[in-house]
Design brief:
By secondary structure, this protein is α/β, with parallel strands linked by helices. It folds into two domains: about 240 residues, Aldehyde Dehydrogenase, Chain A, domain 1; about 200 residues, Aldehyde Dehydrogenase, Chain A, domain 2 (3-Layer(aba) Sandwich), CATH 3.40.309.10. The protein is about 45% helix and about 15% strand. It has 17 helices and 18 strands. Strand 4, helix 7 and strand 5 form a beta-alpha-beta unit. The longest helix has 27 residues. The chain is globular. About 45% of the residues are buried. Bound molecules: nicotinamide-adenine-dinucleotide. Nicotinamide-adenine-dinucleotide (NAD) binds next to helix 8 and helix 9. The site of nicotinamide-adenine-dinucleotide (NAD) has 27 residues, from helix 8 and helix 9.
C-alpha cells in the first residue's frame, strides 16, 4: 500500500465501511484457492434465496416505483437467474488457464493466461433495476472468486433494504456485505483502496468514481448511460418498429439505460410511423390518460426530483415549438407522466441534449441518412444503437459508421438479455463489459505466464560478443 492510500485508510479507519473493507481484505486471500464447485455452491444458495423471496422482490419494487410484477419477473429476477445458470454451465471452462501458441521468438516456451480474482471489489448500483444491477455484477464477482461490498441506491429504499437482508441470508460479511445509505456512504467507500470498482449509474457520477479509483489505481468497470438513438429507414417494417420501440421506451416508464432515447425516421414515413406508434401506445397502455393512469402495467417515475426534471424537459420542448403526437399529461402527486411522443423538435431543446430517462419519445425526421448519422455522431457515444431496416447493406453501413456500446437490428433492449454477448458502453456511456464470460473477466485479472522448456533466449544474453550481436540482429530481422 503506498503512502497516499495509507493516509486515506487512516482517515476513514473508524467507519463501518472501513471495518468491512479490512475484514474482506483479510478474507480475500482464502478465496484465491476456491474451485468452480465451491463458487457455484454459493451461487446456488443465492439462486435459492432469490427464488424463495420472489414475492418480496415484487413487493419492494411495487412499493418503490409501482413496478408491475411481470416486469419485475422479466427485468429483475430473470436476468439474475439467467446469469447464475450461465455461470453454472460455463464457470469451470472460464476458470481454466488458456493455453496460447508461442510466437516465433518464444519457440520452446509454453504460454498461458491464468484467471485470478481481483480481490476486494466494490459494486455501486443505480435505482432503476435495483436487483438486476446489484446481483448481476455480484454473480460475476463471486464466480471470479472475489469479495464484494454492495452499495445499492438510496432512491429505492425498499429494494435496498431487501437486497441487504437477502445478502445476509447467503453470505458472511467477510465475503459479501451491503452498505445502504446516501451519497456519503458511497463517498466513504470510494476513499478505500478497493482492487476493483464496478459502477452502474450516470456518466456524471461515473467520472467521480473514476477519479476516486485513480487515487488507488483501482481497475474500474463503468456501466453508464446516455442518449441511445433508434433509426427507422424507409425499408423498415413500420408496425414491428413501432411495437419494439414502444416496448423498449416505455418499459420501466422509460427509466432504462438502454431505452431508445429518441428516434430518427425517414421523412417519407412521417404519417405511417407516428400513426403506428400512437396506436401501439394506446393498445398497450390505454386510449385515454385516465386509462393509462389506472393501467397496472404502467410503472411510475421514481421520485419527485426526477418527475420535475422530466416535466421540465417536456415543458422546454413544447415552449420551443415541439408538437405533441400523443400524451403530454401528467400528475405530480402520483409521479405520473403519460406515454408521450413529440415531434418538430428544436435540436437546442434540453430534451435533445441530456439523457431523458422518462416516458418521453422525441421523433426526428431526416431527409437523407447522412444527416441522421451526423446528428447522432455529434452527441457523445451512446450505450445502444437501434436500427430498424430490411436493407442489409445499409444496416451494415450504419453499424460501421455509428460508434455505440451495443446495438440491435430490428429490436430494442434485448441485447441485454443475451448471455453470450458483452454488455457495456464506450467512453461517455461506459468502460468495460459485464454479463457472462465478460462479467467473469471484468472481475478477474488475466495473469500472463510463460514456462521455459527448451527456448534459446539465453543465447542472446551478454557478454555481447560478435556472435551474440549477430544473433540479436538475426532475431530482430527474422523473428519480429
Ligand atoms: P447515479 O449515478 O445518480 O447513482 C448511481 C449510484 O451512485 C447510487 O448508488 C448513488 O448513491 C451513487 N452516487 C450518486 N452520487 C454519487 C457521488 N457524488 N459520489 C459517489 N456515489 C454517488 O445514477 P442513477 O440515477 O441511480 O441511475 C440512472 C443512471 O444510470 C442513468 O444515467 C442510466 O443510464 C444509468 N444506468 C446505466 C446502466 C448500464 O448498465 N449501463 C444501467 C442502469 C442505469
Amino acid at each position: 500500500m503506498n503512502q497516499a492510500v495509507a493516509a486515506d485508510a487512516v482517515d476513514h479507519a473508524d467507519t463501518r465501511e472501513a471495518h468491512l473493507f479490512a475484514r474482506q481484505q483479510a478474507f480475500a486471500h482464502s478465496l484465491r484457492h476456491t474451485t468452480a464447485a465451491q463458487r457455484l455452491a454459493k451461487l446456488e444458495q443465492l439462486r435459492k434465496t432469490i427464488e424463495a423471496h420472489r414475492a418480496d422482490i415484487q413487493q419492494a419494487a411495487l412499493a418503490d416505483f409501482s413496478k408491475p410484477a411481470p416486469e419485475v419477473e422479466l427485468s429483475e429476477i430473470f436476468p439474475i437467474l439467467h446469469e447464475i445458470a450461465h455461470a453454472k454451465r460455463h464457470l469451470k471452462k472460464w476458470m481454466k488457464p488458456t493455453r496460447v501458441f508461442p510466437t516465433a521468438a518464444m519457440m520452446g516456451t509454453q504460454g498461458q493466461i491464468r484467471y485470478e480474482p481481483r480481490g476486494v471489489t466494490l459494486i455501486i448500483s443505480p435505482w432503476n433495476y435495483p436487483f438486476n444491477l446489484t446481483f448481476g455484477p455480484l454473480v460475476s464477482a463471486i464466480a471470479a472468486g472475489n469479495t464484494a461490498i454492495l452499495k445499492p441506491s438510496e432512491m429505492t429504499p425498499h429494494c435496498s433494504a431487501l437486497i441487504a437482508s437477502l445478502v445476509k441470508e447467503v453470505f458472511q460479511e467477510e465475503e459479501v456485505a451491503v452498505c445502504e445509505g446516501e451519497v456519503d456512504v458511497a463517498q466513504r467507500l470510494l476513499a478505500l483502496p478497493f482492487d476493483h470498482i464496478f459502477f452502474t449509474g450516470s456518466p456524471q457520477v461515473g467520472s467521480i468514481v473514476m477519479q476516486a479509483a485513480a487515487k488507488h489505481l483501482a481497475s474500474v468497470t463503468l456501466e453508464l448511460g446516455g442518449k441511445s438513438p433508434a433509426i427507422v429507414d424507409d425499408s423498415a417494417n413500420i408496425e414491428k418498429a413501432a411495437r419494439n420501440i414502444v416496448w423498449g421506451k416505455f418499459t420501466n416508464n422509460g427509466q432504462t439505460c438502454i431505452a431508445p432515447d429518441y428516434v430518427m425516421v425517414d421523412q417519407r414515413l412521417r404519417e405511417p410511423f407516428l400513426k403506428a406508434v400512437k396506436a401501439r401506445i394506446e393498445k398497450t397502455f390505454g386510449t385515454t390518460e385516465q386509462a393509462q393512469k389506472e393501467n397496472p402495467d404502467y410503472c411510475r417515475i421514481v421520485n419527485s426530483n426526477h418527475f420535475n426534471r422530466i416535466q421540465g424537459l417536456l415543458d422546454d420542448a413544447t415552449e420551443r415549438g415541439a408538437t405533441l403526437v400523443t400524451g403530454g399529461g401528467s400528475e405530480a402527486e402520483q409521479r405520473f407522466i403519460a406515454p408521450t411522443v413529440l415531434t418538430d423538435l428544436s435540436m437546442e431543446a434540453k430534451i435533445m441534449e441530456e439523457e431523458i430517462f422518462g416516458p418521453l419519445l422525441p421523433v426526428i425526421f431526416y431527409q437523407d441518412l447522412d444527416q441522421a448519422v451526423n446528428t447522432i455522431n455529434a452527441l457523445p457515444k451512446p450505450l445502444a444503437l437501434y436500427i430498424y431496416s430490411k436493407d442489409k447493406a445499409r444496416t451494415e453501413q450504419l453499424l460501421t459508421r455509428i460508434p455505440a456500446g451495443g446495438s440491435c437490428v430490428n429490436h430494442s433492449v434485448v441485447q441485454f438479455l443475451h448471455g453470450n454477448l458483452p454488455f457495456g458502453g464506450i467512453n461517455n456511456s461506459g468502460i468495460g463489459n459485464s454479463h457472462g464470460y465478460y462479467g467473469f473477466r471484468a472481475f478477474s485479472h488475466e495473469k500472463a505466464n510463460v514456462r521455459e522448456r527448451f527456448s534459446i533466449t539465453h543465447w542472446l544474453f551478454p557478454p555481447y560478443t560478435g556472435f551474440v550481436r549477430a544473433l540479436i540482429r538475426l532475431t530482430s530481422r527474422f523473428f519480429s
